[in-house]
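User: Structure tokens for both sequences below?

Assistant:
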Amino acid sequence: MSKEGTAVKVTVARIEETLAGSPAFTRVEPCFYVVRQGTAYVYIHVLPWEPDRALVRLVAQLARGVEMTPDLAIKLLRLNARLRFGAFGYVAQGACVVFAHTLLGGETLDAAEITTAVRDLSMLADDFDDMIVEEAGGKRMQDLIDASAAAALFSELDAPVSSLAGSPGSRARDKG
């Protein structure tokens, strides 16, 4: 096994051992996880780095459709200077304000480091998503997920009855 593969595997195992007991923690796919805190979602991505290292990238998309003004940018930069973990950023595609932090994975990564970083990032993300939307518009990630789920539900409800013929409940309706 390559050293790169070992570092990633050790990191994934430590994250899963540390966070598996939390109902807020979900494994999405190998090396990619989500932690929900209130209205915020923190994405955890384990990435290979250098021959024998791994990175743990934690990113919370706080709000999309944000009008990034000079005033908001300066406020976020000032906050970056005072924060213990993480930093605010802006992704022009989607006009998205993010909050991100990176940990060094591998043998040196421990449970205390994981829980402290995830806890601090998720709590700050949950607080700041509301502040950003209030000040600069846009939608919190929870609002976007709720809207997407509602749209999917309503599209199913608007489906013609004939498209439901293959659904499990259709046999019961046909017999009745």
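Moving on to the next sequence.
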Amino acid sequence: MPRRSRLAALAGVCLLALGAVHAAHAADAAASADGAAKPSPNITPAEQLIFTTDHMRGVAPQTELDYAMVASGSEAQGSAQGGPSGAATGADVVRVLVNSAGNTKSDAQVSDHSGAVTLPTEGMPCNPVILYFLERDISEMSALTGGQRRYFQKRLRLALAEGPKITPSMSLIGGKSVAVRRIVVQPYLHDPNAQRFARYTGKRYTFEIADALPGQIAQIRTEVPGADGDFAHPLRTETLTFQAAVRKLGGAASAPAATPTAAPSASR
């Protein structure tokens, strides 16, 4: 199989494997009843940057990458820890423990407040925290709307397959300005079935990739706007932000390999 075709298939797997669907483009052909446009079989630069880039390159074995998971907004209390509204603080720490150099064996271990999290990471070159965030988001969308997980997986992949812009920008991570490449998509904005979940039609997904950070993921963010598409007063915002890279020596943490000086925040 040509390299470009392999990359396209892998990008589809990264999203659709979350629902145990491994033939992404074949699945689109089989699930075309909603009339949505098919993505190109050639992977877009946005898909490649998010799903088929070796984000873990250069990360040493026994390095723990820590990410702050924060939920905010009028509908977000408790959501960062996956509990019912009002049942938790709205904050969590997601940890990615890299076992093999550069995660070449796809054996990084992901955990959060609930313990170890199993993800379909085998053969995936991307940082597994991306799969963690999207798996969690898709499960949440399914629970909130009653829709099928595969449907939300497909909408997000279609949005990325349309070739969204990759914009150079700066993001404030822990009080430090970091150069990022930013990708923004709104998967449900022109969805013919959006009336089924009108509250989430304008939901926006932002991916920020920073080559200078271990694991390269600076931030992933979703925002549900308020009335009339008001992102200044969102109903719900969930943000996963790089916090630190810590070397583990003999089961104990050494000095941080790359640690921001303050709590994580994001530029708009």
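User: Anything stand out in the second?

Assistant: The beta strands are 63-72, 91-98, 109-112, 115-117, 166-173, 176-185, 204-209, 217-224, 236-249, 252-258.
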